[in-house]
Amino acid sequence: MGKRHLLALFNNFDEAEAVVRELRSVSLKGFDASKDMTVKSPIEHPEVEEFLGDKPVRVQWFTLFGAVGMGALMFLLISAAQGNFFAQMKGGKPIVPFPPNFVLTYEMFILGGVYITVLGFLICAGLPARRSPLYSVKVSEDQIGILVKSEEGSSATLKSIFTKHNALEIQEEAGK
Amino acid sequence: MKDIREDIAWAQINKDVLKSLENPRKLYWVILFIAIAMVGVAVGCEVYQYNTGLGVGNFDNPHVWGLYIATFIFWIGMSHSGTLLSAILHLMHADWRKPIYRFAEAMTTFSLMTAGLFVAVHLGRVWNIYFALPYPNMRQVWPNFQSPLLWDAMAIFTYLSSSILFLYVGMIPDLAICRDNMHPGWRKKLYTAIALGWEGTDRQWRNFRVTYLTIACFLIPLAVSVHSIVASDFAMSQQPGWHITSFPPYFVAGALYSGCAAIITLFIILRYVFKFEEYMTMSILKKIVRLTFAIAMVWTYLNLVEYASVWYGDDQAAKHLLIQKATGTYAPFWWMMNFCGSVVPFIMFFKRFQTHIPVMFSVSLLLNLGMWLERWMIVSPTFADGYYPWTWDHDQWPSFVQWGIVFGSFGWFAMLFMIFCKIFPSVSMYEVKEMVYHRSLATKKLEATGKLAATGKGAH
User: Which parts of the chain span the membrane according to its record (chain A) (predicted)?
Assistant: First the structure.
């Protein structure tokens, strides 16, 4: 039996939350709420995370790696370059001047942190992405969308749950 | 005081902001035309200077830095506005920043782009701009790693690229709104490409929030370091008048000050040009004005600290320079700087002027004039009153070439900024929706509490 995508649109977060709670408690063949359900919203709404449950965000690890890695790498590179290429007569000044190198390392620490954070964001958020099978422009306007993927036989049950919680619109498409 | 309506429909927010991309007032085109004409003047002056040499700018020895470096610092300072509004106020959960932070971030980016041009223009030999970078070379030209000029190049590059990323990342949800609402054409193709397929899923929002916060946290120390390094360009040189301990914080305060003043100017212009009266409200203007006044007082304090340190210090050359500033050739500009920077802001102290558009527009322009003069008064008087007596009769008046390029830089900034506001939403739609949503929730809670209290089921 093929998988089927369903998208239901709701007027507010309360209705969307009620649907999510019901979908998590219902037992449907081929439907796992933690994997097959996506909530789409026009704003960043912390309550969505609350009712969806705790899901890890790993962007910070990219930040840590980027900042520390880039800072350390640049310090080593600059110091190595100074030691190898700039060992000209320096009038008694050290060949590898630590205080200026710390300033440059600080800038590179931030540069690496920002760049790799953005890279981490793209990886963790799955961007750039193709449009999902069902998409409504209403989600970027003022409605909350719940996209679910389930066995074809479950669609009637899902539709009844959506309708019970005042879905404004239900879109349906056969999955591949 | 009129504020953003809590009952405004989210769809209406989209509609109003998207309309600004297509249908601004005629003044938009007037500003853009004037800006392009100003850029034309600057290009003409630069071509003349490029072909003839830096002498046409009236540069000589000891006047090697003139308006170019003064204006470079001015534009770097202006860039701090975006960091203040976006990053600092974001971390402080000041939700009133939401309708205006986008254009402040754009200001940051375009100010830095403008500042960067002055590094090239100031060199004279533009083709040697790559000497500013710490590249490892084997050609007998050694970048001086101990020089803050080299740190500056790295710091500004980091600040510019991080600011562009911050602006872009924060704009992705709005770009998706543009993509979803635009008619087919070049705009739709552009938004489709750069929205990266954003759909507002819980996974995307979760990662977005952390990313935005993280970049904001990086930008604050970065902004402070950038202007501290610019201060080091002066403080680490061997010229009188630039060695006060408070120089870096003085520069940072000045940067925030000029940035805030520019935000007021652009707030008023954008509000009218793009018909944003509903979003850029008087209540927000009042808050920016108060913030600017507070920063003006910090700047004034640091300015007085500088004068006092020099006056009571043991550096005779610096003291002589200070007296020269107040009584010599540059005295009118020095007094004008003090007047615009420390006296004019007191107009903002009066409540009735805080939301008076013509008064605030004029005040913001005067403040920025003061801040530009401040930078000029840091640079030129020092060269005219150096350690060597032969410098003392070398007052420099910039030639029309210098003035033309400085004048044109304002056109360059205005041109980039206006083009940005016509292509990208200058009000953050999703954040205004969040602001409206959270305010309406708070009101509902208050109403519910009131009802409970009225029926005697409250706090007991």
Answer: 61-83, 103-127
